[in-house]
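Revision sheet: structure tokens.
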Amino acid sequence: MSAAPASIRLGCIADDFTGATDLANNLVRAGMRVVQTIGVPEGPLDTDADAVVVALKSRTVPAADAVAQSLEALRWLQAQGAKQIYFKYCSTFDSTPAGNIGPVTEALMDALGTDFTIATPAFPDNKRTVFKGYLFAGDVLLSESGMQNHPLTPMTDPNLVRVLQAQTRRRVGLIDHVAVAAGADAVRARIQALRAEDVGIAIVDAVSNDDLLRMAPALAELPLLTAGSGVAIGLPGNFGLSPSNQAAALPAAQGRCAIVSGSCSVATNGQVADFVARGGQALALDPLRMAAGEDVAAEALAWAAPRLNNGPVLVYSTAEPEAVRAIQARLGVEEAGAMVERTLAAVARGLVAEHGVGRLVVAGGETSGACVQALEIAQLRIGAQIDPGVPWCHAVSPIAPAGLHLTLKSGNFGTPDFFTKAFARLDQAA
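Predicted:
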């Protein structure tokens, strides 16, 4: 590999794979050339980029493991010359009282020798807003949005100051909408006041993209930022960059089309229903048959093979919350999730390696992580946006030596017609 490029401005650490592409998407839209790595690379980056996003699978692992992985990513990014570090988590801030947002944030602060950082999951383009420290999903508080039923990280408290304070030994404060609305100088002044009060982490209000853009200049001086992907829209300007179509350029798409969905979110359930209602070719997988040892992945691939020439196929384990709870009660939460991930990853690998799929949509953060690993993808080039937070990407791997166009969709993101729209957008870009 060649020496690390000198142009890396921003080094990012994302706690899951869809969150990484979500962040990278916003950076690309604002003019940065972005490479996403799958895990921490073993050697220096061998391509030029303005920002690098290291995608980890650390959102729901034990806090100590998340800290260790994040610090390893930090060391690699520092070795590539990153000027500022960005720890990215979900716009639903989903975590538990034990972490992992707080412990990772504190570990990164300690490693960087900084006494202050911000925290905001605000992403107005996807209707995630923060006001007076409370997180809203659309018109309702997070705790009323469906996230209270999340199978791994249920969110029942929308007050982010309280949620984060439970995870960290540092004092957590608030930069409220009054300061943000007044602009960067007011945000800087509020940061200084909080520092004087021995506050180490501040939740930041944002209810619009204008808020994110107003606060961005005040964030240029911080060694570490922690946020969802929304804050990213204002950061390229801090490095003298502006939006450019060239930043999102990808190779021409080719190959068959498929969708693999493991998310059980409200949004993804709606997307599956929309695809089926439009006459889409779809196969639902039964977790209880997986648990019985049946080769559900092989059956799914045999089902898909004759149908791929007729348009996209969808293989999914998406289910309503009641069905998910019933399966978890029988198999256990962790084993149920891992079993479904393994099966869907095997389906994704088979579709690409054996059946000529060159355009693949994967729905769900944990599912995306498993599929990317099964496809042996080490690096992604980030392309154009399909919906807010969800871009097309391009990768080359031993499983896809001719190249693969890939979309990693967070469970909560996308319009109801996302699965249909994704392939149409890629065709339009050709």
